[in-house]
Amino acid sequence: MMRKYFIFLVYLSSLSLSAQDTLDSIPSAKLEFKLGYSGNFVWNNGLNFGAEYLWKEQVKRKERRGKQKTITHQFLFNGNLVFTNNFASKTDAGIFTNYGLTWRRTNTKGKQISIELNPLGYYRSFLPETYEVKGDQVKKIFLPGRSYYAPSLSIGLGKLRKGKKLTGRYFNINLMLRTPYNAGTLPSISFQYGYRFNFKKKK
């Protein structure tokens, strides 16, 4: 028994070292993480975890009225993992993940606007205690719920904090489509508010 635990611990250690090597090989300035609230303040409130990787960046400098203005356009690959729970009716909970591309514009003052398109999305709902009847038997269903294809679109505002580990904050309005839902598609709107951060200080 002890030998099995030892082998398991060695395996976990190797995974941890491999993940750390992967993160170290990625330029810190290009990889950021985010953490925040996701929901609509009434039901399905939860937490959003995510990561962004800078793909392309274009910087434009203009001089107006004797002042130089800098506008930055960025294209970023992104991924999100969200946990939600219906605290109002206590009917269901959910977990979803999505992946896509973000366009973000940053002006001289650090104010940002962004559009995030996530064509790859998966949503899994979890229902409360549920039973099914088969003949004369009543059985409890293990992890009742449904799975959906769930693409999404977000439009957001934010603020950049240069040279900080806490690199910025964001507020997004997110539209997600769950399909197939009954005979069609179920649209849902949620809000996301949180902060982006970098594990390494920028030089």
Shape: elongated
Largest sheet: 8 strands, antiparallel, barrel
Number of strands: 11
Overall pLDDT: 79
Contiguous runs where pLDDT drops below 50 for at least 5 residues: 1-13, 15-27
Q: Which class best fits the helix and strand makeup?
A: mainly beta
Fraction of residues in helix: 10-25%
Distance between the termini: 49 Å
Q: In DSSP terms, counting alpha (H) and pi (I) runs of 4 or more, how many helices?
A: 1
How much of the sequence is in beta strands?
over 45%
Radius of gyration: 22 Å
Strand order of the largest sheet: 1-2-3-4-5-9-10-11
**What is the H-and-E element order?**
HEEEEEEEEEEE
Helices and strands, with pairings:
Elements (H helix, E strand, L loop, with lengths): L1 H24 L5 E9 L5 E20 L2 E19 L7 E14 L4 E16 L4 E4 L2 E4 L6 E3 L2 E9 L7 E14 L2 E14 L6
Antiparallel strand pairs: 1-2, 1-11, 2-3, 3-4, 4-5, 5-8, 5-9, 6-7, 9-10, 10-11
What does this structure look like?
The chain has 203 residues and is mainly beta. It has one helix and eleven strands, in the order H-E-E-E-E-E-E-E-E-E-E-E. The strands form two sheets. It has an eight-stranded antiparallel barrel with strand order 1-2-3-4-5-9-10-11. A two-stranded antiparallel ribbon has the order 6-7. Strand 6 and strand 7 form a beta hairpin. The model is unreliable at 1-13 and 15-27 (pLDDT under 50).
Overview in brief:
The chain has one helix and eleven strands; from the N terminus they run αβββββββββββ. By secondary structure, it is mainly beta. Mean pLDDT is 79; it is low at 1-13 and 15-27.
